[in-house]
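User: Can you model how uridine 5'-triphosphate sits in this protein?
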Amino acid sequence: MTQPIIKKAVFPVGGLGTRFLPATKAVAKEMLPIVDKPLIQYAVEEAVEAGCDHMVFVTGRTKKSIEDHFDAAVELETELESRQKAGLLEIVRNIIPPHVSCSFIRQSHPLGLGHAVLCARPVVSNESFAVILPDDMVDHETGCLGQMVDVQKQTGGSVIAVDEVPDEDIAAYGVVSVDDDKSSPARVRHMVEKPCRTEAPSRLAVIGRYILQPEIFPILAKVGRDADGENQLTDAIAILARQQDVYAFRFHGTRYDCGSKLGFLKATVQYAMKHPDLADGFRKYLNEL
Ligand code: UTP
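Assistant: Here's the modeled complex, given as structure tokens:
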């Protein structure tokens, strides 16, 4: 059986980012930088590394800067050229490789992650595709999506990345139950969104990386809204898992939840300690602290 190749990556970035207010009143959460690159750029680089060549951004209000970030900046380039800043010019020109194309779709109301993914349907059409939530960052030699593409080549079906989280955090996540707790990948039996601690089927929480089959779209179109009026991707994947194989994969690497302030700060410290220009000075500063 030839497995489908994942060429399209969907970035649902239509959320309000309320946990970062007032910073996100007029600025997209995904444009907040970890050291010197915005979250969305790390996510796009991970998708490109995994073999995707079409980035599909599902945006909302305050997100125009994301479109500008991946577009040419003619005035800035001209200015840098005239000042002979070759290094900076290179950075600005190489934000995205030339073979990669971008589509932008507007999610007019933030009706949930499931709704955002459904907005990408006209562009994704009938292909398997990836979904990356830029506020989940995974630090590892091979990006999380690249690891999942390798898994998907072997298993077929859909693949979702999961992480074991402590009991007290479980109610913040979509949680899976799998056929075999000890194996990875493992077939998903069921999924629930934000269960209370006593009702969680496991401690395996879904993080912001998915490879999905296009059969998810008709399910998303039918699935209802939850108590908060949001259309949940988890509910749709739970239905998909009854119709075809969905695998939970425990990725390799360290995950940072950059949608929370603490996770964002942890990622900033970690990436600063690895940054070639900053590592020495930053470590010295931390030691002094
Ligand atoms: P979050 O639950 O983190 O919500 O969404 P949020 O709005 O981004 O942030 P907070 O909780 O208010 O601080 C998870 C992902 O789903 C996307 C978000 O942009 C984020 O990548 N999302 C959520 C949408 O694209 N559309 C939505 O309607 C809701």
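A couple of observations from the model: The two ends are 57 Å apart (CA to CA). The mean pLDDT is 93.
User: Helpful, thanks.
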